[in-house]
Amino acid sequence: MSMNEKLALFGGEPAVQTDDQEMFRWPIITGDDEAAALDVLRKGSMSGTDVTLQFENEFAAWLKLDYALAFNTGTAAIHAAMYGCGIGVGDEIICPSLTYWASALQVFSLGGTPVFADVEADTLNIDPADIEHRITERTKAIIVVHYIGYPADMDRIMEIARRHNLRVIEDVSHAQGGLYKGRKLGTIGDVGAMSLMTGKSFAIGEGGILVTGDRSIYERAVAFGHYERFGANIVSAELKPLAGLPLGGYKYRMHQISSAVGRVQLKHYERRIAEIDKAMNYFWDQLEDVPGIRAHRPPGGSGCTMGGWYSPHGFYISEQLEGLSITRFCEALQAEGAAGCYPGCNLPLHLHPVFHEADIYRHGQPTRIANSARDVRLEAGSLDVTENVIVRVFAIPWFKHYRTDIIDEYVRAFRKVTANYKELLAQDAGNPARMGQWNLSAPVADRR
Ligand SMILES: *Cc1c(COP(=O)(O)O)cnc(C)c1O
């Protein structure tokens, strides 16, 4: 194909011609998932725990950990992980601001507060070099998010945590099945917790799961959200006398249609994400030499992988295309048929009013102040990488199958747009004042 071919934005033929929704459909649901869900409905065991216990055992065995505890959302699983780590009134947790709110916001209800750290420009994960100076005597834990699938620098983070006697909670919502130096994500910190909701790469419907090798974290998590299991099996002398009622008043049990589907999904998961990994790496391999864009993936041979490539993004390097805005760049890609390409990712949590002025529990002052011995609020300009990432990253197609004929069409779209970028400069209106969202789903207007 001639790279001088007319851009679709200006009336040329779009590079992507095949509209095969099977390439993007997720999760993959077969007759086995349907039968498992129907079985739960027909037995009327939606609120039971028999299927969920089996799912937990299989999930724990998959990760080679002693304990897995299922929840009705990832939000709940992370909440319980915080409680499991003993986080309480006045405590601080250090976490990235570039993430979904449920990595951190629940800590308010335990009487604690998040302290936000910046992320690394090339991985988008919490920057180990920005953690230590934020640690005080109130710091209890570091929350690590393997952001959009990229494994965080666990060796450096664990070293800091051990030196300061902090717990490490891995939020694996974006990276189930991913590896850090050959080790499964979620098994390296003290506890892993994650969403399994439908939009994620391990997708079973609303649901979440906590995994740990630490009996005391597991028991506290049971006591927090699973009153019906908070009984004779608890060995902790502190918890035992309180058995029967949930500590804090939450009921977080997983719906058994979710756990039934989860059992089926788990059987196929490694094979399915291996195909995604092959497809996504093939896509980026074709684009290595293209100016203006760069893959967000760990270097080959590092033993680190992207798991199921949840919500994959690429970096945009505007300087290499004479300052062409990412907005204009994505418009051109969309016109070529790459509908899922739009700018930005999560907005920075540290700038949201909930972390500045909201008085959620009627303390008579902002919760962020009431829950902390000091003012940990951060103004605009505090976290450089996080605040500027919105014009540096864009969503790319999330291929579920290794179909090189179709992937090649998308590769062609990217090559065509970058090769003809000069034509886009003329009518480039720049980026709008507001970009990105609080979650990672496609902006409503662009949703396919
Ligand atoms: C989705 C998500 C959660 C929350 O999970 P839910 O199942 O939606 O409650 C937590 N952390 C991150 C990083 C997420 O993307």
Automatic annotation (TrEMBL):
Domain of life according to the entry: Bacteria
The UniProt GO MF terms for this protein read: transaminase activity
Which SUPFAM superfamilies does the entry link to? PLP-dependent transferases (SSF53383)
Q: Which UniProt keywords apply?
A: Aminotransferase, Pyridoxal phosphate, Transferase
CDD domains xrefs = AHBA_syn
Q: Which family does it belong to?
A: Belongs to the DegT/DnrJ/EryC1 family.
Q: Which PANTHER family match?
A: DTDP-4-AMINO-4,6-DIDEOXYGALACTOSE TRANSAMINASE, TRANSAMINASE
Instruction: State the protein's name.
Output: DegT/DnrJ/EryC1/StrS family aminotransferase
- What is the species listed in this Swiss-Prot or TrEMBL entry? Paenibacillus spongiae
